[in-house]
Each structure stands twice: as C-alpha cells, then as structure tokens.
Amino acid sequence: MMTTPSHSEAFLELAADYQRLLDALADGADTDEALDAVLAEFKVVEGAVEAAVGQLARMDALVKSQIAAGQAIIDHARTVQARYERQHESLRRFLLGLFQRAGLQKVRTEIGTVYVTRHERVVVDDPALVPDTLMRVTVAANLTAIKAALAEGESIAGVHTERSESIAIR
User: Fold this and answer.
1) Who has greater pLDDT, 62 or 20?
2) Which pLDDT does position 29 carry in this prediction?
3) What is the chain written as a DSSP string?
4) Where are the domains of the chain?
5) What's the rounded Cα separation, in Å, for the pair 96 and 44?
6) CA gap 92, 52 in Å, rounded
C-alpha cells in the first residue's frame, strides 16, 4: 500500500531536492547530467511532467527571491563601506590639517609612524589642447546602431547575430 506524504514531508523533500539541484548547478554540473538527475529526483513519469515543472518554477521563484535578498545585503554592505570610507577620508583630512597647523612632519605612535607625504599629479584642463600623441582613445562598437542596421537588412563585416531561447516565468 502506497502512502501519500504529508504537506510538510513533501516540502522537506522538495527542499532537499532543491538543495541537491543547487549544489549540482553551483558545482558546475554538466547540464545534461543535471537534467537527468532532476528528472530522476522528481520521479517524472508519464503525466507528471507538469508537477515537476511546477516544482522547478517554485525553485526558480525562491532563487530569484534569494538573489534579491543577496542584492539587498550587498547594497547595504556598500552603503556601510561608503560610510567607513568617508570616515577614513575625514580622519585623514583632519590629521593633515592638524599636522599642517602644528607644523609637524612626522609623529611616532604605538601603532606606527604618522607622517605627511607629498604627491604630484597631472591635471588636464583642456583635452582639446593636448597633442594627439599624448592622448588615449577608446573605441567600442555601437551595438544598438549595429542591431538597427542589421534589422534594416544591412550587411556588416565582422558582425553576426546569435539567437537563443530561455525560460520565462510570470
């Protein structure tokens, strides 16, 4: 006699399947092998493909939410990092002002020697006046213009189009 798993058991099984799938994909598993493993894991039999696709779509939604959560963490970390960088620069400016007002060049402390350094940099006021031999030019293809030209039937040497398919889940 076959028993049907409870919702919580099914969820735990789905979570375990999901983790195995993520581990396989994260480890760079061969796509064909991963697909075979997924089909085996979900025990796909005739008529049950929709259920497996539904499970995979739920996994995809969970991964998307994890991406968003990860991005929020990254954004917060960048904000915190920027605040620390501003504090660092403010402390450095404060120390430099203190050294300049006190006429100091070097002070030894328990964590190291603090001293004033001198820097020189070049500032370009008007790039049009700088000789071409001293300029660096970066050239990049205008992909938007190329795509539009190809759509109008133009033939462009050194360019080709590639088509691919992907999955959309709404």
Assistant:
1) 62
2) 60
3) ---PPPHHHHHHHHHHHHHHHHHHHHTT--HHHHHHHHHHHTT--TT-HHHHHHHHHHHHHHHHHHHHHHHHHHHHHHHHHHHHHHHHHHHHHHHHHHHHHHT-SEEEETTEEEE---------S-GGGS-GGG--------HHHHHHHHHTT---TT------------
4) 7-102
5) 70
6) 59
Q: One-letter amino acid identity for 79?
A: T
Q: Which residues are CB-contacts of 150 (< 8 A; sequence separation ≥ 6)?
A: 156, 159, 161
Average pLDDT over residues 139-168: 88
The reply to whether the predicted model has a pTM over 0.70 is no
Q: Which of 59, 63, 33, 38 is nearest to 48 (CA)?
A: 38
- Judge contact between 116 and 99, C-beta under 8 A: yes
How many angstroms separate the CA atoms of 123 and 33, rounded?
57
Task: Determine the straight-line distance between the first and last CA of the chain, rounded to whole angstroms.
Answer: 38
